[in-house]
Amino acid sequence: MAASSYYVILVAFVALVISQATASDPMKVNGFVCKDPMAVNADDFFKAANLDKPRDTMKSKVGSNVTLINDMQLPGLNTLGISLARIDYAPLGQNPPHTHPRATEILTVLEGTLYVGFVTSNTDNGNKLFAKVLNKGDVFVFPQGLIHFQFNPIHDKPAVAIAALSSQNPGAITVANAVFGSKPPISDDVLAKAFQMQKATIDWLQAQFWENNHY
């Protein structure tokens, strides 16, 4: 059989496999099943999130409440590379140190005052902290993947911010939760050496309830 005939048969076989796969399995993007374009409607791009309403921060051990709008809440965001969150801070409340593995974040303060910052990755000169005190209307950027935080330093006034993120699914790793609240727990031998602490201190930290308030 000529080489050209082999090529024609190969192309036909590949086309058959693809057609069978697409016929039996719905196409997914970012883990989500793609909706039939003919079934898409305005509600896929809309959510009554009431982001103008204050959130309860009293039940949070860290004193903050994050309301995330990502592709889980708003299907029309899928593949668009953007999401947002409203963050409410109690007096002296914080959004504890965390990272977003898939997104850079830009934060705008709507009300109150926030002390914010991020830490650079490992360098010969150590991990440098970039921090500022923000007031109403101020903006700060947290680069993708770097540990960052927000803290309301005012003891008698709440604060509110809006965060925009450069992914429809930014992800979050809260440092304390990941290190001390993993299930099953990381060996206290490992953490005691890593943090240069007594194992009893590590055991105490691992016994705490590490609240996940995060987006």
UniProtKB/TrEMBL annotation:
Keywords: Apoplast, Disulfide bond, Manganese, Metal-binding, Secreted, Signal
A cellular component annotation (GO) from this entry: apoplast
Highest taxon of the lineage: Eukaryota
Pfam families associated with the record: Cupin_1
MF annotations from Gene Ontology: manganese ion binding
Residue ranges constituting the Cupin type-1 domain according to the UniProt record: 49-203
Location within or outside the cell: Secreted, Extracellular space, Apoplast
Family matches, as CDD domains: cupin_OxOx (cd02241)
Family stated for the protein in its record: Belongs to the germin family.
Protein name in the entry: Germin-like protein
The organism of origin for this protein: Sorghum bicolor
